[in-house]
Amino acid sequence: MSAGTLESAALRVSVNPEVGGTITRIEHKRSGLSVLGRVPWVPVDAALDPPAAPDERTWLTRYTGGWPLLFPNGGDACDFAGKFHGFHGEASIAPWKTEAGVSTLRLTRRFLTVPVRMQREIALDRDVVVIRETAIAEGARPVTVMWGHHPTFGSDLLDGDFELQAGARTVMVDRSYDPPSNPLHPGASGNWPTVQGKAGMIDLRREPRGAVAAVAYLSNFESPWISIRRLDNAIAATLSWDERVFPNVWLWYELGGTQEPPWCGKARLIGLEPNTTGLGAGLAEAERRNERLLILQPDVAVDAIVRLHVCQPRGTITGVNVDGRALSDA
Question: Domain tally for the chain?
Fold first, then answer.
């Protein structure tokens, strides 16, 4: 795979600039454990040309189970503002220009689907992955976009019982996504961490039983963070972000729940996905439902930051400090 490798004393991170600048692997060196997911197929190691996936199945041919960027669309392909936007957006499957250092990778792209230039910096601060991004609309008119991250966790992190913790106050179940293995009641809402399921209330902090495919949205954060911790404390991943840009988190479960190809019931993944918008159904549907979209004003830079702390915790994670490192109750 055409990839860049970043290293610190604590982490080894692989990035594929040719396909979305996707982070494909994050390894905790001391334990030798990895936290990002893997898909049960061999991804195509080439950018999609043109960079607009007509549907999810096409997009999945490039998907590794890692951490792509969603921009300027998230979710379903659609026509919006006179342009066709592919599934999960141009950024996730297009090549990025790169400048590499030992522990920093800088990526840039001027998008084809919107008149926007973005600069990204992926850097390591010991055991924290730090992603800084700047988007600038270069035309004469405002540009409406969705902007989000799609970190998908799995591998060693889910190789055992686990729990989720988050600084959210509110959770809402996707009202349209309802496969047979979805235990959540479509459209239900509640106070994090509980929500109505099809067989009673469900505590989303706990690992679901059996095969699961489900989507919910977290919002109204007391503090913008979310974590997955293996209950044996072998490894944990704690994500934090700029709530000003990303007020929502998409929570996606694919725990052997989709039997159709290419999944074939073989994936064990959880997506924790900060996003501008509280609906993963594409720009057009989000606008139709009056969901929040981000409007970039001409020549006005919008900055965002996302951090991921990978560590061997001492117990339940209760929050993050100012550097994005997990706090625990131990």
Answer: 1
